[in-house]
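User: Could you walk me through two proteins back to back? I'd like the raw sequence and the structure tokens for each, with a short line separating them so I can tell where one ends and the next begins.

Assistant: Of course. Protein one, sequence then structure:
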Amino acid sequence: MLVKLVKFFLEIIIKTNRQKVKDSFKRVLPVGDYFSDRWEKARFYGFGEGTSVYDNVLIFGDVNVGKNCWIGPNCILDGSGGKLSIGDNCSVSAGVHIYTHDTVQKVLTAGIAKASKASVSIGNDCYIGPNSVISKGSIIGEKCVIGALTFVNGKTVPSFSSFYANRGKIIINDKS
């Protein structure tokens, strides 16, 4: 009986919150986001003031995120192989995966080699496009744009530049 009562009240809360969010923002979210506070989650991890992290973001290891950042839904911030540092005023779009390790050589050597590890750094004022992947050892300077669906494979992307999946070209932006 208690389970049915709890289920009944949860359904009311979900439906009420879902409708409020839909009416206010024209969006429907995963159920967890109706119960969690994105800014509280960021504070819990020690991220900078004004940063928000969706409920379904996975965070592992040594991850540091600066002030006023937006970490979108379905992201992975994996600092388990080294430090993952994201500066201030960054937008990490939905579905972005950032890794500080990989197990490619471990698998290819039937477990003889160890996982490969290296830190990742993203400067201030960067935009990381949806569903991009940033791998171990990548360094992204300040005021950079990483295009949607881009794989940054251990590269250095200079400040004031853009990097897009289309042939992996770096485009230096005018600094003025």
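----
Protein two, same layout:
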Amino acid sequence: MKRVLMRPHGSQRGYMLLLVLVALVAMMISGIALVRSIDTNQLVAGNLASRNSTVHSADLAVQQAVNWIQANATNGVLFADSTANGYYAEEQEPNWTHPNVWSVCTTTTGATPCYTANDGAGNQVSWLIHRMCSIAGAPGTPNQFCSSLNGTASSAGNSYSSDAIIFTGLPKNFYRISIQVTGPRNTTTLTQAFVTL
């Protein structure tokens, strides 16, 4: 008969148990880090999608503002401020991040052309138009200085190149369209575009 020698319980140290516990803690920390990384990536992707949505809404607002300018280009409305429509006949440099700048469109009662409460993508869109002139008034008003183009390049063959001959024609005023879009994830986009008509 063979004898089996067993160590007494008092001489076992438990190193393996300690090693397994350390490995479990390391695996748990790496698992938590992986979950947090996935959550962060999803938040970043969602924020980028929300920002892109606000940029697309701003593009649509530019077109709406251009349509408003074109609709009022011949009736004299563009010579004076029309704050209810978000239009200013002179150049201004407001603090674009201040809420009062945009309140002209958002606090008026009824439907205003310069504000959309929900554009279908959950965005609130406001636009303001500034004619790039020193003061309000019709062309030829004393002390009136406007950023404008002379001539009509598309119909008279003029060129707007710096060294080209400029033929006489009707001046075209510049208009700055500023758009603020606020998205559902507190994403705010400020976009500006210059047009001439």
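Helices lie at 15-71, 99-106, 153-156.

Let me know if you want the two compared in more detail.
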